[in-house]
Specification:
The chain is an alpha+beta fold. The chain has 2 domains: 6-131, S-adenosylmethionine decarboxylase; 138-197. The chain is built from 5 helices and 9 strands. The protein has a 9-stranded antiparallel β-sheet with strand order 2-3-4-5-1-6-7-8-9, with helices on one face. 15% of the residues are buried.
Length: 199
């Protein structure tokens, strides 16, 4: 396992239900990190005591979902970093991880819980270690370039994704497997559209 002097998380976007937040708390405690939390009608605040400082994760409640968006964290505690990274993968979150070690920077771009690109930077040298293949057709690429409404579409698309995630949660709570499968298929379409708009 690689150890890093510092890990910076930027552009973090997590959407969790109440149960998932408590699962995150359990993982942090299992990793040996003291955790305190405060819950109100609109917010859920986690305070994590690491070796260097107290880190805070502030989730805003929207319906049944708690959202953590566009937050940045400088982390020097390997335990906290590992728990957070695994959780971002598990809940299909987004983030950019910048890992610093011995003058080397490794940048992980994570979208929908998967690394889409890992880049290593040493001084002026830059090397792409991994890049996920994009599974879109040439017609979809042409259509994306023709569109000039990306700035308007992205916020609407984010709302649609939020609604689908809420419906998926309800379907899973009610053991509606067919409905959950349909919603996952729709989410995959939205994911591809989002990738195309962000080109």
């Amino acid at each position: 396992m690689n150890t890093y002097e510092e890990i910076e998380y930027t552009n973090v976007n997590l959407q969790l239900d109440h149960e998932s937040i408590h699962r995150l708390i359990e993982r942090l405690v299992d990793a040996g990190l003291p955790v305190a939390w405060k819950e109100t009608q609109r917010k859920f605040k986690l305070s994590i005591q690491t070796t260097a400082t107290t880190q805070q994760l502030m989730f805003e409640k929207q319906g049944k979902i708690y959202k953590l968006r566009n937050k940045s964290y400088n982390i020097k505690d390997q335990r906290f970093s590992e728990v957070l990274q695994k959780f971002i993968y598990e809940v299909k979150g987004h983030a950019v991880l910048k890992k610093v070690s011995a003058g080397q920077l490794v940048v992980h771009n994570i979208r929908y819980g998967e690394p889409i690109r890992i880049t290593e930077i040493k001084g002026q040298n830059k090397k792409v270690l991994f890049e996920k293949e994009c599974s879109v057709s040439i017609n979809e690429v042409i259509e994306a370039f023709r569109r000039n409404d990306a700035e308007k579409r992205i916020p609407l698309l984010m709302k649609e994704i939020d609604q689908h995630l809420s419906h998926l949660y309800e379907a899973m709570q009610n053991n509606q497997e067919d409905r959950a499968r349909e919603i996952k298929e729709e989410l995959e379409k939205k994911r591809i559209e989002m990738l195309m708009l962000e080109v």
